[in-house]
Inverse folding.
């Protein structure tokens, strides 16, 4: 990151309005609920949303077209930090700064760095060829259909059995039924 880094403006989760039409609505709604009710177990920092014009500017400057889901995410929050799986999705400014990064594990010309998770060097990428989300842990990759699936996976792996909450249990039951 540059020496002139300015932290993004935070968004109050108590006033956050998750777009009901967004693919990630159920997952983010659950995470906001858990962060409000179990702050010792789930910490969620949301950043001030971006406008369509700001996202369009990113796409024009970088010649990269974001998926509709990522556009919706950045219009809801310009990145976020979630204690569950230590998942951090960067602001678009941070994503843009990382465009020239060369990774030790290989060629990333078809990937867009979005953030990291776990805290041990595992990164979150958008595969620009398939529009799938990839996590790469020092060369070992896992593929997810989208951010929504990654959020759902992290909820089920890291929160199952950790918090006794009716909404969480309902979500976990729906996730099990879907598999």
């Amino acid at each position: 990151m540059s020496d002139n880094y300015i932290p993004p403006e935070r968004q109050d989760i108590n006033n956050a309005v998750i777009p009901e039409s967004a693919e990630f609505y159920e997952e983010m709604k659950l995470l906001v609920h858990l962060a409000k009710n179990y702050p010792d177990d789930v910490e969620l920092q949301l950043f001030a949303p971006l406008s369509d014009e700001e996202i369009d500017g990113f796409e024009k400057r970088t010649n990269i077209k974001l998926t509709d889901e990522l556009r919706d995410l950045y219009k809801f929050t310009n990145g976020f930090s979630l204690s569950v799986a230590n998942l951090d999705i960067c602001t678009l400014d941070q994503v843009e700064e990382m465009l020239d990064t060369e990774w030790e594990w290989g060629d990333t010309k078809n990937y867009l760095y979005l953030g990291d998770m776990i805290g041990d060097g595992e990164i979150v990428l958008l595969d620009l060829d398939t529009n799938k989300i990839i996590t790469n842990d020092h060369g070992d990759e896992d593929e997810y259909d989208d951010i929504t699936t990654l959020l759902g996976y992290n909820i089920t792996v890291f929160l199952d059995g950790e918090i006794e909450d009716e909404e969480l249990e309902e979500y976990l039951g729906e996730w099990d039924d879907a598999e």
Remarks:
- The beta strands are 10-11, 44-47, 80-82, 87-89, 111-117, 122-127, 133-137, 140-144.
- Residues 10-100+146-171 form one domain.
- The two ends are 39 Å apart (CA to CA).
- Residues 25-37 form the longest helix (13 residues).
